[in-house]
Amino acid sequence: MSGNGAVWGRVRSRLRAFPDRLAACGAEAAAYGRCVQASMAPGGRLRKDLCAQEFEALRSCFVAAAKKTLTGGR
Amino acid sequence: MRLQAASPLEMLRLTRFPPQWRRPPAAGVPAKNVGFRKVASGVSSLGSASPRSLNIFDRDLKRKQKNWAARQPERIKFDYLKEEVGSRIADRVYDIARDFPLALDVGCGRGYIAQHLNKETVGKFFQTDIAENALKNALEMEIPTVSVLADEEFLPFRENTFDLVVSSLSLHWVNDLPRALEQIHYVLKPDGVFIGAVFGGDTLYELRCSLQLAETEREGGFSPHVSPFTAVNDLGHLLGRAGFNTLTVDTDEIQVNYPGMFELMEDLQGMGESNCAWHRKALLHRDTMLAAAAVYREMYGNEDGSVPATYQIYYMIGWKYHDSQARPAKRGSATVSFGELGKINDVMSQGKKSQ
C-alpha cells in the first residue's frame, strides 16, 4: 500500500500528540475515570454509554486542545 | 521456517479470522500482502493430529514485528525490560556451581542474556530467534556466539547437544508450549539445565482492565488486547510433562512507571511485544484509546501523574535426568523420625562424628 510509510507516519505523529492533549484535559479525564470506576462498585453495572456525558466533555476538551495546538503554532 | 497449511480446505478455515482487517500499517509493517495472506502456522503435523496443537498466535506477524522493532533507530531505549530480565537469568546461571561449554538461547532477541555472562561460565553460545534483524543487530558480548534463525517450536539441533538452555521472555508467543518445552528437553544433555523466564498472568493487568472497561463503556463489548499468559501451576505441569526433573518456579514483579497509557503502548510496540493473536481486533478506536487512558490514570495513576505497569515474570528451572542427580529417597528408608526435629543439632553432629 504505502511504500514510503507516509500514511503510517501521519497516523503516528497524530497519536504522539495525544498525551499532551490529554494532559490539558486532566479534570475531564479524571471525571470520566471516576464515573467508570464508580460503576465497578457492588451493585453497579457498566454498560454502553453509561458515562457518555463525561466522555463528551473529555472529547470536546480534547478537540479544543487539538485546535489550539494546530492554530497556536508550533 | 514455514509450514504450508495441509490442504486448501484447512487454509480456508484458518483465514476465517478476519483476512481483510489486517492490522493497519500503524504497526509499522509495510502492508504488502493485505488481503489473502499465506497462512504460516504450526498446524498439526502429518500423523500426530494432536488436539493440543493450538494456533493462537500469528507467528509470521510476530516475526515481522520483531524484525521491525530490531530495525528501529532508537531500539536501545526499549531494551530496559529485557535487559533486566536477562540479567536476572544470568544471575541464576551464575548461581549454579558449574560451567557450561555449550549453551543455547531460545528466542534471544538481541542477546540480552549473553551479554551478562562471561567466557568462564559459558564456553560457546548459540543464539536463536525467529527475527533475523534481531540477530544481525545483536549486542556486544565477550562469549563466542553462533546465530541461528530458528522458531522456538522447531529447534534444528540434535538430541543431547547442550549443557544449558536459556530463554528469556519469548516463550509466551509460542503456540504449542508443551512441544517447545519438549524440544528444549530433547536438545539438552543429560544433567543439563533449562532456565527460562516468561510473563505471568498479572502482567499488564492495568492496561488490560482499562481497555476492557473503556471498550465496554464506549462500544458495548470488549475483545482481548493482552495475550493470555500461562498460569504458574500449568508451568509446573508443562515442565514435568516435557520430562524435566527438579523443577523450580519462582515469580518476580517489575513495576515500571510511564507518563501515560500511550507511552506504555509505544514502548510495548518498540519492544516487539505487540499483539499478534489471531483473534485480536485489528482496530482500536481513538475514542476508546482516549477513554482507556483516562480510566488508566484515574484507577491506577500515581500521585505524580505517572501510571504504573506491572510485569510479572515467572522464572523456571528444570533439569534433564541423569543418574548422578539426587532423587527422593525410597519409602520406608527413613533413619530419623520427625519427632526428633527439636534435637536436630545433636543428630547432625552425631552424623558428622560417625563419618
From TrEMBL, chain A:
<dbReference type="GO" id="GO:0032981">
    <property type="term" value="P:mitochondrial respiratory chain complex I assembly"/>
</dbReference>
<dbReference type="InterPro" id="IPR034595">
    <property type="entry name" value="NDUFAF8"/>
</dbReference>
<protein>
    <recommendedName>
        <fullName>NADH:ubiquinone oxidoreductase complex assembly factor 8</fullName>
    </recommendedName>
</protein>
<dbReference type="GO" id="GO:0005739">
    <property type="term" value="C:mitochondrion"/>
</dbReference>
UniProtKB/TrEMBL annotation, chain B:
<dbReference type="GO" id="GO:0032259">
    <property type="term" value="P:methylation"/>
</dbReference>
<dbReference type="InterPro" id="IPR013216">
    <property type="entry name" value="Methyltransf_11"/>
</dbReference>
<keyword id="KW-0489">Methyltransferase</keyword>
<dbReference type="Pfam" id="PF08241">
    <property type="entry name" value="Methyltransf_11"/>
</dbReference>
<feature type="domain" description="Methyltransferase type 11">
    <location>
        <begin position="104"/>
        <end position="195"/>
    </location>
</feature>
<dbReference type="GO" id="GO:0005739">
    <property type="term" value="C:mitochondrion"/>
</dbReference>
<keyword id="KW-0808">Transferase</keyword>
<comment type="subunit">
    <text>Interacts with NDUFAF8, leading to stabilize NDUFAF5. Interacts with NDUFS7. Interacts with PYURF (via TRM112 domain); the interaction is direct and stabilizes NDUFAF5 protein.</text>
</comment>
<keyword id="KW-0560">Oxidoreductase</keyword>
<keyword id="KW-0809">Transit peptide</keyword>
<comment type="similarity">
    <text>Belongs to the methyltransferase superfamily.</text>
</comment>
<dbReference type="GO" id="GO:0008757">
    <property type="term" value="F:S-adenosylmethionine-dependent methyltransferase activity"/>
</dbReference>
<dbReference type="GO" id="GO:0032981">
    <property type="term" value="P:mitochondrial respiratory chain complex I assembly"/>
</dbReference>
<keyword id="KW-0496">Mitochondrion</keyword>
<dbReference type="InterPro" id="IPR050602">
    <property type="entry name" value="Malonyl-ACP_OMT"/>
</dbReference>
<protein>
    <recommendedName>
        <fullName>Arginine-hydroxylase NDUFAF5, mitochondrial</fullName>
    </recommendedName>
</protein>
<dbReference type="InterPro" id="IPR029063">
    <property type="entry name" value="SAM-dependent_MTases_sf"/>
</dbReference>
<dbReference type="GO" id="GO:0016491">
    <property type="term" value="F:oxidoreductase activity"/>
</dbReference>
